[in-house]
Specification:
Helix content is 46%, strand content 15%. With 287 residues, the protein is an alpha/beta fold. The chain has one domain: Alpha/Beta hydrolase fold, catalytic domain (Rossmann fold), CATH 3.40.50.1820. It has an eight-stranded mixed β-sheet with strand order 1-2-4-3-5-6-7-8, with helices on both faces.
Length: 287
């Protein structure tokens, strides 16, 4: 698998399509990039050149922590450098759930590198913040405090990170547990501050400031509420919300696999949106 070097951090990546308008897509959670593959393959088939990558601390990329930035700022800066390495900036930036948070952070930090945003299953509200803060940060604070970095390495996500890239164990074990806890707490703070915001990590003023064409496909569960996506769309100057033909469900999380089944519909919405909003980058389907 190919790796790019971003400030000494090895980032696993793949590019679909040999030519066409540049696009970068990111999955939800801290999932590896194949979770965005169903959408990426369809957009590549429509003539786009699509960059996929494992964010640091995800998939088969390096474990690496920057205490000077939030997790999403770190990911956004990595993506900007990755796009520049492959001469793909400015690009259409998209993602699901945490991938959508990355895309929004990217648009705020690197507006010169964005042509449009494609967002699905955006997150906001107190329920999502509480549930996700436990999953992304709180459990690791407890594990490091009770069992040190060995306990962190044994947890499901980081154990997979080590299986994918064995050198990650040494990187993780080299971190002092107290330092790791401070990083988790620092990353948690801006995340939980988003409970009253339109979207986690994004203020109303932030949304007003994003001028590029944006397409939002709202989710349909308690973590990715449909009203959350529709409200965010109304706050953005050039944004459309497109509901899929799915009912809202009173469950914490609709499995991502259910959304993979709708990849054709999602790609069709995004393709139509881009053709109308960015006619200069509209392209014929790849052969």
């Amino acid at each position: 698998m190919p790796y790019a070097n971003i400030g000494g951090v090895a980032i696993n990546y793949e590019i679909l399509g040999r030519s066409g308008p540049s696009m970068a897509l990111s999955p939800g959670g801290r999932n590896p990039y194949p979770h965005a593959m169903p959408i990426a393959e369809r957009m590549a088939a429509k003539g786009y050149r699509v960059l996929l990558h494992d964010r640091r601390n995800c998939g088969a990329s390096d474990a690496s922590f920057d205490p000077s930035k939030s997790e999403y700022e770190m990911w956004a800066d990595d993506l900007d450098e990755l796009l520049r390495q492959f001469d793909m900036a400015p690009a259409i930036i998209g993602g699901s759930s945490s991938g959508a948070r990355l895309a929004l952070t990217f648009a705020l930090r690197h507006p010169q590198s964005v042509r449009a945003l494609l967002l699905w299953r955006v997150t906001g509200g107190g329920f999502a913040v509480k549930r996700l803060a436990e999953r992304y940060y709180d459990q690791y604070v407890r594990l490091a405090g009770e069992g040190g970095m060995a306990a962190v390495c044994a947890e499901e996500h980081f154990a997979e990170l080590i299986r994918n890239r064995p050198a990650n164990r040494e990187r993780l074990m080299a971190i002092e547990p107290t330092a790791f806890i401070k990083i988790m707490q620092a990353w948690r703070a801006p995340f939980v501050a988003g409970a009253e915001l339109p979207l986690i990590g994004t203020t109303e003023a932030d949304l007003h400031s994003i001028k590029v064409p944006t397409c939002i496909i709202p989710g349909n569960d308690l973590t990715h509420g449909s009203a959350t996506g529709e409200t965010a769309a109304r706050l953005m100057p050039d944004c459309e919300a497109h509901r899929l033909n799915v009912e809202d469900q009173n469950v914490d999380l609709v499995p991502a696999e259910e959304w993979y089944k709708m990849a054709d519909d999602i790609a069709a919405i995004f393709s139509d949106f881009l053709t109308r909003k960015l006619p200069c980058v509209a392209t014929a389907p790849a052969a």
